[in-house]
Design brief:
This protein is an alpha/beta fold and about 325 residues long. It contains ten helices and twelve strands.
Length: about 325
């Protein structure tokens, strides 16, 4: 079910309670975005002004954090994840998906989880948020986009393969995987970013995009024929291109998103260009999901050093995407 949102609020899931997520929630009020945090109020920093609500649409006085309470098994110690809380973290994500799928909220922004903590505490079987959200949505095909928010021209990257060893990338970068990433990105740029005629750039797998076959033939034998077929359908695609020349300002101005062969090929440029302002977006879901582009930061949790820039950017992007979808 994908009902129309009856509340303009974004749902902000709590993430790992022992990380910086609880600190980021009240700081995110500076975003100016209407959102409700789902989690255990015990995990919020001492002195946080909040009001519990029963539905995302419930009114809350200005300056207070709206909280949809979700009881966890244990309190939280910053920097020390408790296996007892793993099931709670997973349940909050599932609860947020259920609410947004029933039209009770406009979108979801997820605070960082610890995949290791979830696996050890609850046998979490998914590589990360993206795969779990896709499963909750019915197993739909998805793609992970990292999008900048503070640079112009923007940097948007989509890795066609994600959390696998580099040695496995050539085999995993099948025609099907690459075509899926391209089509999902193309559709999402239209539906969620309001770009009517998306321009895509596709990176080669090998250095210099194979250098005419002298550094590998993947581009000649597999990638170029696929791109030619998609171009014949009318898609605006450049490539395969050398990845090392795709991300300077003039190159970014020529495309709306870059499809990359593997994780680091995509994430190194955006984290270099816009580390604090990068946003993780799951493309292809029947609902909108964004996330700050950083982890749990156990090393600084509870020390008052959490930077809300990426969380604020993720909330604003979720709001804007929801407005574009209508």
């Amino acid at each position: 079910m994908t009902g129309r949102a009856t509340s303009g609020r974004i749902l902000l899931t709590c993430g790992e309670p022992a990380g910086i997520g609880p600190e980021l929630a009240p700081l995110a009020l500076a975003s100016g975005v209407e959102f409700a945090w789902i989690g255990d109020p015990r995990h919020l920093p001492p002195g946080t002004g909040f009001q519990e609500i029963s539905a995302p649409s419930d009114p809350v006085p200005e300056g207070l954090l709206p909280v949809l309470p979700h009881e966890f098994a244990a309190a939280a110690t910053p920097g020390r994840p408790d296996p007892a809380n793993a099931k709670g973290v997973i349940a909050v994500i599932a609860r947020a998906v259920e609410m947004v799928m029933h039209g009770e909220a406009a979108a979801i922004t997820t605070l960082p989880i610890s995949k290791q903590a979830l696996k050890e505490g609850a046998g979490f079987a998914f590589p990360g948020h993206t795969e779990y959200l896709a499963d909750l949505a019915g197993g739909v095909p998805v793609a992970m986009m990292l999008a900048s928010t503070t640079i112009d021209p923007p940097c948007r990257v989509v890795p066609a393969t994600i959390h696998i060893p580099l040695s496995q990338v050539p085999a995993a970068l099948s025609d099907q995987a690459l075509e899926q990433a391209i089509r999902i990105t193309h559709s999402a740029l239209i539906r969620d970013f309001g770009i009517p005629d998306p321009r895509l750039a596709v990176a080669g797998l090998n250095p210099h995009a194979g250098e005419g076959g002298t550094m590998g033939r993947d581009e000649i034998d597999r990638i170029r024929p696929l791109l030619d077929r998609l171009r014949a359908e009318g898609l605006d695609i450049a490539g395969p291109l050398p990845a090392d020349t795709m991300f300077h300002a003039a190159a970014r101005a020529r495309h709306d998103a870059a499809i990359c062969a593997y994780h680091d090929q995509a994430l190194i440029p955006i984290k270099t260009l816009d580390f604090a302002g990068g946003v993780n977006v799951t493309l292809g879901l029947p609902f909108i999901r964004t996330s700050p582009d950083h982890g749990t930061a156990f090393d600084i949790a509870g020390r008052g050093r959490a930077d809300p820039t990426s969380t604020i950017a993720a909330l604003r992007m979720a709001r804007d995407m929801a407005a574009t979808r209508g």
